[in-house]
Amino acid sequence: MMYTQMDIDLDVIAENYKKVSDRLPKETGIIAVVKADAYGLGAVPIAKKLEKAGCPMFAVTFMEEAVKLREAGIKAPILVMMPAESKELLIAGKHKLIITITDYEMAKQISDELVKQSYSLPAHLKVDCGLSRMGIVLKDRLEEAAEEAAKIHALPNLNTEAVFSHLTAAGTEGAYAALDLAEQQRFFELIKMLKKKNISIKTHLMSSDPYIWYPQTPGDYIRVGSILYGICPERYSCCGIKNCMSMNTYIVQIKWIPRDTEVSYGPLYRTVRRTKIAVVPVGFADGIRRALSNKGEMLIHGKRVPIIGKICCDHTILDVTDIEEVKVGDEVTIFGRNGEESQTAGDYAELCNASAPETTVIFSARIPRNYLNM
């Protein structure tokens, strides 16, 4: 018997997609990011639902993720954002995938190989407008970057369809607006320079948070994941985004322990009164981070109850002293609504100084995912 389970409402994801899509200019499309198994929620069922809803393109990190989507029947274009290796070109060709290019040297090697094999591949060019991760550096060298991009665009059998990048301050709620704007300016200045070279190319720069902050510059696509899943809906309240996911478990033991009693490993916690505790069968092996020890809460009978002591591998201990008539077998809500109270992955993320995807992506495979409205 599995005591903990997750419910994912695919209709909510489809509704969130429509809300985002309706806010965009007609000429701007959505690339749904389903990397890392859609941040732990399930890439295949989510991609199937979004494709039915009209999503024109998907993005993943690794070739294996894209192949899994194709084998599940996804027909829409799929961008693989990790730079392609020569050994992956046949796989990309077989499954009609879009590869990522990060510089001329790499692009030339791939082009030469494609010419030898007598086939072509679509590609998106990654540029670095300030994140200092992958791609052609733009800062203080726009002209050189434009020349390199133009050389890549001219290579045979490599069809460079789009240029993309990531903003450095993508998850910091607009606190670094000047940095964001400088990076956007670099990116779109590059596109202008390419147009002067008679290169017309599509763009995608905005992810979930920047799309909210800077709706005036969406580009040809926005590249979003978190906003579609609603795992931190309060972050996107302006769009009416809803949470798609709930997680529940059950109490497996209740007992009273005396005042001045240590609770769990460490110990990190000692009771200050005679305390009624409830043990629930979920822990850090399931993805409930130990950083939530003595910080996080769960919901029982429509009330918040604190996590006390260090979170264990398979168990978490709750203080239920103030909950009347609580008993073994009662449902415990980790995420979702319980009576008048609710909690999301975003709430746990805030306690851990993390993002909502960081919270969901580590959920263990041993937690069953139940998909509603497939």
TrEMBL record:
Sequence ranges assigned to domain Alanine racemase C-terminal in this UniProt record: 244-372
The protein's required cofactors: pyridoxal 5'-phosphate
PROSITE patterns to which the protein is assigned, alphabetical: ALANINE_RACEMASE
Cited InterPro entries: Ala_racemase (IPR000821), Ala_racemase/Decarboxylase_C (IPR009006), Ala_racemase_C (IPR011079), Ala_racemase_N (IPR001608), Ala_racemase_pyridoxalP-BS (IPR020622), PLP-binding_barrel (IPR029066)
GO CC annotation: cytosol
Keyword Isomerase: yes
Pfam family, one: Ala_racemase_N
Cited SUPFAM superfamilies: Alanine racemase C-terminal domain-like (SSF50621), PLP-binding barrel (SSF51419)
Molecular-function annotations in GO: alanine racemase activity; pyridoxal phosphate binding
GO BP term, example: D-alanine biosynthetic process
Keywords: Isomerase, Pyridoxal phosphate
Residues with the N6-(pyridoxal phosphate)lysine modification: 35
UniProt name for this protein: Alanine racemase
Organism: Enterocloster bolteae 90B8
